[in-house]
Amino acid sequence: xxxxxxxxxxxxxxxxxxxxxxxxxxxxxxxxxxxxxxxxxxxxxxxxxxxxxxxxxxxxxxxxxxxxxxxxxxxxxxxxxxxxxxxxxxxxxxxxxxxxxxxxxxxxxxxxx
Length: 113
Description:
Largest sheet: 7 strands, mixed
Shape: globular
Number of helices: 0
Strand content: over 45%
């Protein structure tokens, strides 16, 4: 059974940093392209960042230069380091295994001005 479990969300002030984790099980982790998405209230989920099997990252323009995606193939876990956060980063953040479309349950990040 495939599971993706996010953690690390919380409430923080603008300009601070936070790291989200996505612990996985049941995946062929090293062969998986992995991603983070976020969802604003009453909006569809939007792409945030992706990391390929060869550790190549891709970022949405809105987070480029501030967020860093990484993976640990020994821990079957990947991360989203969020730096210099802004109030507009407030959303529920979801991790995803891209090929089969497995999602985590999400973790809330709230940034105050």
